[in-house]
C-alpha cells in the first residue's frame, strides 16, 4: 500500500480503530487538524491522522481526558520542555488513578461488610443493606 496516498475517513477509521463519528468529533474539538478536501468535498487524510488517532485512543485508554490529551499532543511537539512536562502529566494522571482505586477499595470494603451482614431473608426494615442506604449508616 502506498503510504503517501490520500486516505478516506473510512480508511482512517478502520486503520486507527475508531468510529468515523469520533474522527469528526476530534476535528471539531481541535484534537485533529481539519483535513484537506478533495474536489468532491470528501475529506482527504494522510498517515499522520492515523498516527494521531492511535495516540489519542491509547491516551484515552490510560485515563487521560480530552483536555489532557490536547496538552500531550502539544507537548509532543515541544522539543525544549516536552518530555519533562509529559512525564509530569503522566505522574498526575497516575496519582489521580491511585486515588480513585483507593476510593473504590473503600467502597468495596463497605459493600463487602454490608453483604456479609445481611442474612438475605426477613423483614426489609431489618436488612442491614437497606438500613445503610436509608440512614447512611454503615454496618
From TrEMBL:
The keyword Coiled coil applies. Residues 6-75 form the HTH merR-type domain. Keywords: Coiled coil, DNA-binding, Transcription, Transcription regulation. Residues 87-114 form a coiled coil. Pfam families: MerR_1 (PF13411). InterPro entries: DNA-bd_dom_put_sf, MerR-type_HTH_dom, MerR_fam. It comes from the Bacteria. One of its GO terms (molecular function) is DNA-binding transcription factor activity. PROSITE patterns: HTH_MERR_2. This is MerR family transcriptional regulator. The lineage of its organism: Bacteria, Pseudomonadati, Pseudomonadota, Gammaproteobacteria, Lysobacterales.
Amino acid at each position: 500500500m502506498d503510504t503517501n496516498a490520500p486516505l478516506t475517513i473510512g480508511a482512517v477509521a478502520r486503520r486507527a480503530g475508531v468510529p468515523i463519528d469520533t474522527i469528526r468529533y476530534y476535528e471539531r474539538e481541535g484534537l485533529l487538524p481539519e483535513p484537506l478536501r478533495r474536489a468532491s468535498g470528501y475529506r482527504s487524510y494522510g498517515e499522520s491522522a492515523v498516527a494521531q488517532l492511535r495516540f489519542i485512543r491509547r491516551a484515552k485508554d490510560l485515563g487521560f481526558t480530552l483536555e489532557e490529551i490536547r496538552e500531550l499532543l502539544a507537548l509532543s511537539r515541544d522539543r525544549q520542555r516536552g518530555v519533562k512536562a509529559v512525564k509530569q502529566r503522566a505522574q498526575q494522571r497516575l496519582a489521580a488513578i491511585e486515588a480513585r482505586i483507593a476510593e473504590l477499595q473503600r467502597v468495596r470494603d463497605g459493600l463487602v461488610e454490608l453483604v456479609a451482614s445481611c442474612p438475605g431473608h426477613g423483614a426489609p426494615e431489618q436488612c442491614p443493606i437497606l438500613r445503610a442506604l436509608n440512614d447512611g449508616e454503615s454496618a
